[in-house]
Structures are given as C-alpha cells and as structure tokens.
Design a protein that fits this description.
Radius of gyration: 13 Å
Shape: globular
Order of helices and strands: HEHEHE
GO biological process, one term: pyridine nucleotide biosynthetic process
Pathway: Cofactor biosynthesis; nicotinate biosynthesis; nicotinate from nicotinamide: step 1/1
Number of strands: 3
Structural class: alpha/beta
Number of helices: 3
Protein name: nicotinamidase
GO molecular function, one term: metal ion binding
CATH class of one domain: Alpha Beta
CATH architecture of one domain: 3-Layer(bba) Sandwich
CATH superfamily of one domain: FAD/NAD(P)-binding domain
Distance between the termini: 29 Å
EC number: 3.5.1.19
Helix content: 25-40%
Length: about 100
C-alpha cells in the first residue's frame, strides 16, 4: 500500500471523514493527512462511495471539497444509515458544490 490512513484513533470521538477527525475536546478537527498526500501527488479530483452515505461518505466528500478537490459522489455505490436522510444529504452535497453521479 502507498498510504495507510489512520482515522478514528480517539475512543472518545466518532470520526466520519477520511480527511479530518470529528470535533475534538478543543473544538478542532485535526487533519488525517489525506488531503496533503493527494495534493502532493497532483490529484485534483476524488470520487467517493461506500458506507454510510449520510455520515462517513458525506463528511469525506464535504471535507474533500473544502480541501480544494473536485468531488464526485457516486450515489448508487453508497448506502445510508437511514434513507430518511437522503434529501438532507442531497441538499448538503449541492450546497457544497459536489457533483452527484448516479
């Protein structure tokens, strides 16, 4: 493997995004190093998929966009914790300028 990414190493904090940890005790969201690693390699676009659509994949997509990547969210290759969250997830993606690919 070229990269082993460790996330969710603090037992007191859930971590959804591949790019940043969730809020820590000081209110910060420490970077995992993924954005820097991708930027160093000239990667400009990321495609996201997996579980769970409305948490981990959504947060990773949003953080990727904030980090300057063009993001494609592969909707059909994700599944939510709850389908009741699908509309909210779509709105959040559109507001972040993330392309939803079906």
């Amino acid at each position: 493997a070229d990269l082993i990414l460790r996330k969710g190493t603090d037992r007191q904090v859930d971590s959804y995004s591949a790019f940043r940890e969730n809020f820590g005790p000081q209110g910060d969201r420490p970077a995992t190093g993924l954005a820097g690693w991708l930027h160093e390699r000239g990667i400009a676009e990321v495609h996201v998929c997996g579980l769970a659509r409305d948490y981990c994949v959504l947060w990773s997509a949003q953080d990727a966009a904030i980090s300057g990547f063009r993001v494609r969210f592969l909707w059909e290759l994700t599944r939510p914790v709850s389908a009741d969250n699908d509309e909210t997830t779509r709105i959040a993606l559109v507001e972040a300028g993330i392309e939803i690919e079906k």
